[in-house]
């Protein structure tokens, strides 16, 4: 069971990194629009969900890194995080951040099948995908922790 957790933390780390890169690409694009860009009449802006996603990914990468460190380092003095119940608290907090970000992104951008020929649209679609994959991974981790705790 512990190797499944390691795999899920590794996947969460990858999804977080991917989402961070995509969110940074999106915020860079919207803050540096060309005056001829039809998006927002060429005026720079940012989508409010993007900073939230950046924050969420940074927190998640730190948490995942810590948990992977604890898994592979048996001499660590941080014993309370080795318990499933304590880990569950952190996972639930991350789950709330991820569901907020993924749902907000999906609500804001919705179905983008009409514009997939444009790079910014592809970035948004990938961003939504990574957000939901991260949330699904966290959901699986929470289910495993709840099953073990009970």
TrEMBL record:
Keywords on record: Membrane, Transmembrane, Transmembrane helix
Transmembrane feature ranges: 7-29, 49-72, 88-110, 130-149
Domain of life: Eukaryota
Protein name per Swiss-Prot or TrEMBL: MARVEL domain-containing protein
Source organism per UniProt: Rhodocollybia butyracea
């Amino acid at each position: 069971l512990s190797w499944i957790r390691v795999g899920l933390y590794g996947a969460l780390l990858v999804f977080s990194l991917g989402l961070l890169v995509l969110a940074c690409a999106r915020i860079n694009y919207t803050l540096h629009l060309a005056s001829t860009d039809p998006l927002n009449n060429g005026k720079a802006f940012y989508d409010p969900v993007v900073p939230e996603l950046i924050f969420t990914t940074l927190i998640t990468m730190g948490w995942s890194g810590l948990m992977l460190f604890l898994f592979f380092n048996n001499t660590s003095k941080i014993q309370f995080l080795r318990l499933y119940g304590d880990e569950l608290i952190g996972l639930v907090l991350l789950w709330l951040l991820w569901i907020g970000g993924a749902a907000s992104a999906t609500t804001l951008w919705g179905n983008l099948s009409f514009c997939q020929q444009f790079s910014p649209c592809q970035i948004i679609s990938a961003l939504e995908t990574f957000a939901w994959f991260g949330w699904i991974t966290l959901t699986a981790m929470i289910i495993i922790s709840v099953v073990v705790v009970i």
